[in-house]
Amino acid sequence: MRQIFRMVVEEGYLDRNPAEILYIPREARRPSRNVMRKEEVKKLHEVLDTRQRLIAQIAGMRPGEILALTWGSLTGTSAEITRRLYRGRLDTTKTQRSEREAAFSDGLLEAIGEWRRKAVCSKPTAWVFPSERLTTPVGKDNLWRRCFLPKLEPVGLEWANFQVMRRTNSSLMKKYNVDPKVGADQRGHGIGVSIDVYTQSDCEEKRAAVNTLEAALA
What we know:
Blueprint: H1 2-10, H2 38-47, H3 50-57, H4 63-67, E1 74-75, E2 78-81, E3 83-86, E4 89-92, E5 100-103, H5 106-118, H6 140-152, H7 162-175, H8 180-187, H9 191-198, H10 203-217
């Protein structure tokens, strides 16, 4: 609830977060915030088939945004995010901030071009990731259960779901010194949510931080 109200505040609908005074009881179960290490990201890409690997590479976007893409929404080096697939139906983006232009890396552009050449239909209204019927986009849950899990379980990465991929995107961007505002804009959320909810620091970064402070105080 606190995070929901935090996004509402960032969107300008409220002046302050009424949930900040709430607290989680000590005995309550807390959600895990797993992220992948660089080596695990590489392993994930190695074991996935072309379509799934491409979806994983775009994981800075929400899965519903990825699956709602049409070829016409891809504009050169980016994608125009104006809608999402939510519970099997096309819907507006999650927030106003989510409606954005999401950039593609050079390697991703090359992979998208290869995928387009293999597409049964690549006209502007066609889905980038269609279902078997071609008239609808592939469903997220079905895609995960049938195509991701069978590949990830044998290598111990069954926990690396779409949320983990998105969190990993945020965390690795921070680790490699990407401007946090640019990263948040790419993922379509506020910088506060980006840092507090999605970004996790690994032990290597924490050691670097304490060593930096120690050296400064020496």
